[in-house]
């Protein structure tokens, strides 16, 4: 561990309240960067924290000293000098701030910002387009037919141009460990750079209040080794796995006959709804409902049969299915890998 | 204590004129309307800025299907309105010199001219509404809102003058002289804003 | 100290007493135009809203005590956090600073007998009360606004929030804005025109500089909000298209307009606190303020520069790089006047001989929290860091430190400081100190961990959070902190309430204060000063010769201005005596006009346009009736 990071760790330990902090880690922590851009921001934070702590402790120290010296007027050594008083105000109120603020400005807004701004056209290897909707993320891979939702895969160590859009209200795309947030605004197309240092799983969340279920509008970014990414993308491009068993065939019938196909798309069937996420490969995802619940049998059943219980106010209605229909439908959905 | 007037005791025209002459600073009422003008100017400034913001966002302005506005009549009307500042100014001069009758007549003249202006503007407004709607485009929304805001201020100005005319029937007092000055300042502001509003309204054609 | 008046003096006091007598009972309060009574009305109304906003805060913190707490449903939560913000900003901190502290103290500090426009002063109060009730009626009908206190479109548009909560918000805030604009105009004219002869601008207390600056800022900051809200209502109710992209509008227009108001608003929130701090410090450290002219200039600069930095609330929106760089640079400039004031205060405290009574403790707490909030504010001017932490709990921490820690602590200290003046009794000092420590600790424990949880990735405005991201313990701690904070605030109120009934009686000047209000009795009589004070420095109470000269004049009946409701008007810069004004007193017009306007806004809310027009005509008639009664006829 370098001397710098050791100093930082000490500082963190020293500044943390009551030892209850779990650490700077966490799947969505800005202090656990996994890209050059997030690391630059995190480093900026630590230096600003050091400077701020010095100023804060200095000022508090002066106040404490004022308490200690409450019986005497003026300064130690200088006595009651109005000139020294005004001089102090000018030095600490004007001159020192001007110097430090210029330094901060140059470092943060001219240097670091270069990396966190939208990537230059042509400086990236691929593009992913994310369209935010209340309350999920529609993910497209331009140039392929791949469409998925709430789970983004990118190749690790690759500069990815992430295009951020929306058709409804303002949302904000935020994966703290990979980069700063970028708002998604109707009528505008914003872009941000994703460049993961290494393969891993990074949590993201909507960061602009967008209505009832803003709290549960999460997503995951997987940075994959290039080979695994290509295989994943090829899988996502394909139409759905046609159902082979009678249960699954019945399940697909249920899907097409009920309200499901009005809101969802399953490529390879007649279902082409766009209100909810594309479900062509829903079983390949690790989470459901905008990274609210894990994607396993029990949660899938709860989500499909009683969505208002999982995410109250979301747009999916509860369906009126018989036990057999429900069983077949779930079987079918679980087969859509 | 010496030489300081109890200005509210000036309940005749002569006394009021005297109080006006003795006063060195702007009276509170005039300060008050000046600040009202400042805040309303900020409101107009915001709406004007919004017009230009939406305009520079747009590819075509006005959008396809809407003709750019005619220039002649609005400009002439605005010129006429600005000219009413003259009788208003003369009315304040008269009031400060205790000439109630002249002040009253000049205010009436201004009011009639301004009411005529408003009547024509309302006709033009209705005509425009028949051609394009604020409910169809942002252009329509800001166009009619900007004009409507201005016309509302004209209505308020007319009501203020009407109120003054009624009160001046009872003669001049210190309070009413300040009232005339205040309403005059309000009108100078409305007339100034009228120029900015009409130039903005007509900007696609200029 | 109170002295027994001689018979000669007593005759003048009795005469003034008769002229300025307040009417009794409910009628008296409904028709009052006395700045002190209006200040008290504002005080109690804003405290009631503070309690409401506080309950909303406690509900939020209880919902976030543990993950998936189930205390509030998502829609209830969204209404609660929206109303918390709206209440605290518009119905508590501004009205209590300007309406309560400003109204009560500014005329006293400048040696005047009332505000420049006493009836409009009353109108401001009734409009404020009306606007607050208007918005809360919406909440209680189950239709509270729920799109956040800054209400971004398109979420707040009719399409995505069809319910009328947003209309309550928009119309309620326009209504509220009329109140505040009227109050601001009143303060500017009062401070310019009604200062005691001899109180040239450079001899005006720093408290008044802060209020002058804040009033000018409001005059220019409120119109953009009014425009934004009007456009929103036109879009929602009449189908206009200011903000919708499909027809050529732009959601970012809302953001620009809102923040052109919203950023100056936060300096408006803190400036009165600066004024209170600069009143309390000299008194308790027994030393004049260091660099007085610099501090006065800094107060004005803060208000001014605040207008040029609004888009730093929009760094994540995707504006052009040159735009974001300009706004970051401008935002850094504000640090300078803030730093000047901070170091002036600290140096004054250091070089004086401080008495650490409760009011000064709250100012020390204010300084600590202001530095903390100011430092994180500086961090936000680092654009990439802002883009990482905006819309997270890090920014929630920042603004609560500056809005609560820095703007409210001086208000709490001010309660203690001026309590003896307003009530004639002293509060309990021991309980006062305890209430400070509880409130200070509660504030620190509630808001400091929010920095950390924000950096750990917790966005704001979410009604619950997952248990596996390391946020749970910190949220739990913050919620406990909020209960401690609540207890501290309750203790303050309890201390003052009990002391009101049983506190030790005090005279005019228990603290050795530096400004004029300490020369009046406690509480001051309706006419404030029997003799118009002559002023030769900003520390009028510390000029013993001048105050003794006042007493001699009372004996001789000079400068008592007792022919009616009289107060002097002076020139703006040098305060040379210009004329004697007769002030209006009791009137029904303010409360009637406020009622008429409330009816207008209610009809607009309900969509009864013609009826709204009819009530506007009624309002115009009331306004005409108002001007029928000229001051000399009062």
Key traits:
heterotrimer, B: 206 residues, mainly alpha, 75% helix, C: 634 residues
How does this model look, in words?
- The complex is a heterotrimer of chains A (337), B (206) and C (634).
- By secondary structure, chain A is α+β, with helices and mostly antiparallel strands.
- Chain A is 40% helix and 17% strand.
- Chain A is elongated and about 95 Å long.
- Mean pLDDT of chain A is 91; it is low at 16-22.
- By secondary structure, chain B is an all-alpha fold.
- Helix content of chain B is 75%, strand content 1%.
- Chain B is built from seven helices and one strand.
- Chain B has helices spanning 13-22, 28-57, 72-83, 85-96, 100-131, 138-168, 174-201, and one strand at 5-6.
- The radius of gyration of chain B is 20 Å and the shape is elongated.
- With 634 residues, chain C is an all-alpha fold.
- Chain C contains 19 helices and two strands.
- At the B-C interface, strand 1, helix 2, helix 6 and helix 7 of B face helix 6, helix 7, helix 8, strand 1 and strand 2 of C.
- Strand 1 of chain B pairs parallel with strand 2 (577-582) of chain C.
Q: How is the quaternary structure best described?
A: heterotrimer
Low-confidence sequence ranges of chain B: none
Percent in strands of chain C = under 5%
Following the backbone from N to C, one meets helices and strands of chain C in this order, namely HHHHHHHHHHHHHHHHHEEHH
Distance between the termini of chain B: 60 Å
Quick one: overall form of chain C? globular
Largest sheet of chain B: none
Order of strands across the main sheet of chain C: 1-2
**Approximate strand percentage of chain B:** under 5%
Q: Specify the helix fraction band of chain B.
A: over 70%
Uncertain residue segments of chain C: none
Number of helical regions of chain C = 19
CA gyration radius of chain C, whole angstroms: 25 Å
